[in-house]
Design a protein that fits this description.
119 residues; Arc Repressor Mutant, subunit A; two-stranded parallel sheet
């Protein structure tokens, strides 16, 4: 039987020694100030050595009740990315609105106004 390597193991194998990729992503996300948002791609560029999709996987891997402000990460169009199941998108929007983040009538955040880091 052939042995396969999980995508998580591949990510960790290509990571810098001493700190896992997910840990570096979570550190970057913790820096996003209250009332600001960042995109998966911006976080990936800050962290280096990963893609926006990997940032999304890291956010999805967080346990319930995590202190990492996952709700502050949205897509490059300023939209909340859809969830496979549950009410995660509604919770994300509610958390952002409680921090003063406004959405337009199309459900988008103005990244020029609320994006972090400021371009």
């Amino acid at each position: 039987m052939a042995r396969t390597t999980s995508s998580a193991a591949k990510i960790i194998a290509t990571d810098r020694p001493g700190k896992s990729l997910y840990a570096r992503i979570y550190t970057a996300v913790r820096r996003i100030p209250r009332g600001r948002v960042s995109s998966y791609g911006r976080i990936a560029r800050q962290v280096g050595g990963c893609t926006a999709r990997q940032v999304g996987y890291a956010m999805a891997a967080l346990p319930a009740g995590s202190a990492v402000p996952w709700h502050r990460v949205i897509n490059h169009r300023g939209e909340i990315s859809g969830r496979r199941a549950g009410d995660g998108a509604a919770l994300q929007r509610a958390r952002l609105e409680s921090e003063g983040v406004d959405f337009d009538r199309r459900g988008r955040v103005d990244l020029r106004q609320r994006g972090w880091p400021i371009p």
